[in-house]
Amino acid sequence: METLERSEAGTAEHNAGLQSFVMKCGGSTLAALPDSFFEDLKQLQASGVQPVIVHGGGPAISENLEKLGIETEFVNGLRRTTEAVLDVVEMVLAGSINKQIVRRIQQTGGQALGISGVDGGLIEAQPVENSDTVGWVGDVTHVRSDMIQGITDMGYMPVIAPVGVDQSGQRYNINADTAAGAVASHLGTDRMIVVTDVPGIMKELDGVKQVLPVVTVQQIDDMIQSGEIYGGMIPKVKAAVSCIQGDVQEVVIVNGSEPRVLSRVLQGEAIGTRIVK
Ligand SMILES: Nc1ncnc2c1ncn2[C@@H]1O[C@H](COP(=O)(O)OP(=O)(O)O)[C@@H](O)[C@H]1O
Ligand SMILES: CC(=O)N[C@@H](CCC(=O)OP(=O)(O)O)C(=O)O
């Protein structure tokens, strides 16, 4: 344990001089991401930026469960996960989706290495509080940031599937927004970029739905209470709030089909919604 803590302290120092960011890519948008999105990612990597990717894949999991005749349902945004569901979650996230992203990055000439949270004990998890209801769903207790740094040091972008593991070897299904937030917090990156299928957090103002350029934690709480933030946006804002309470300075929610969206966020352009301290 002492060795691990020492090596992780080294990681934080190592990160200090380099621009890195965690990007969460949602299943809602993965198939629709244009080649230019991956081209942008490759150019960032070539310019010395270190992207760390955590991906979802909710729609593909549901599709595969349906094909297999396994029923599925969500409880407060979390998939009820039985042993049979867990098999499909791991197959889809750590298998097809993870490799699809790695291939797309490699097609542009970028360097990517796919890994799930189980490999090397990268994402350590424990049962969520309401595991009686949702089954094998996990909360993150630790992330091996030294492993992520090792992969980036070798010149690869880590592409992480949100499956966690505990000390006994039990696997857990982890919401991808939650996993990405935990990775950003443990790495101590300045920024997390959440790529999804909407242009940011929307609110109806004067009868017109508009993207909010900046939101505070208080506004988020109010919008959840009023029902203006619902469904898949809830785990995103919750992960964002938990990140910015630590070292992460801002979380930006953007639409993946906007041209060069990642570079534009990194250059400080006002695009999407910024969640700030
Ligand atoms: N206030 C809001 N602004 C924008 N989208 C919202 C809001 N509240 C809920 N949503 C929903 O959140 C969805 C994004 O979450 P989700 O479908 O889980 O995406 P992903 O697969 O990228 O994680 C949007 O498509 C939209 O339906
Ligand atoms: C516990 C839980 O709900 N896990 C999610 C993991 C995938 C995910 O979060 O994917 P998106 O980012 O595309 O929504 C699930 O089973 O769908």
Taking the alpha carbons of the first and last residues, their distance comes to: 32 Å
Tally of distinct domains: 1
Extract low-pLDDT stretches.
1-17
CATH homologous superfamily annotation: Acetylglutamate kinase-like
Approximate strand percentage: 15-25%
Please list the strands of the largest sheet in the order they lie side by side: 5-8-2-1-11-15-16-14
Main β-sheet description: 8 strands, mixed
Calculate the mean pLDDT score and round it: 93
The top level CATH class name: Alpha Beta
- Strand element count: 16
The radius of gyration over CA amounts to 18 Å
Quick one: overall form?
A: globular
CATH topology-level fold name: Carbamate kinase
- Estimate percent helicity: 40-55%
Give a list of the ligands.
adenosine-5'-diphosphate, N-acetyl-L-glutamyl 5-phosphate
Order of helices and strands: HEHEHEEHEEHEHEEEHEEEEHHEHE
| Content-based structural category | alpha/beta
Tell me the CATH architecture. 3-Layer(aba) Sandwich
Q: Treating each run of at least 4 consecutive H or I residues as one helix, how many helices?
A: 10
Instruction: Classify the oligomer.
Output: single chain
Written overview of the protein:
- It holds the Pfam family AA_kinase.
- Keywords: Amino-acid biosynthesis, Arginine biosynthesis, ATP-binding, Cytoplasm, Kinase, Nucleotide-binding, Transferase.
- The chain is of the alpha/beta class and 277 residues long.
- It has one domain: Carbamate kinase (3-Layer(aba) Sandwich), CATH 3.40.1160.10.
- 42% of the residues lie in helices and 25% in strands.
- It has ten helices and 16 strands.
- It has an eight-stranded mixed sheet with strand order 5-8-2-1-11-15-16-14, with helices on both faces. It has a two-stranded antiparallel sheet with strand order 3-4.
- Strand 9 and strand 10 form a beta hairpin.
- Helix 3 crosses helix 4 and helix 7 runs parallel beside helix 9.
- It is globular, with a radius of gyration of 18 Å.
- The N terminus is likely disordered.
- Bound molecules: adenosine-5'-diphosphate and N-acetyl-L-glutamyl 5-phosphate.
- The site of adenosine-5'-diphosphate (ADP) has 17 residues, from loops.
- N-acetyl-L-glutamyl 5-phosphate binds next to helix 3 and strand 4.
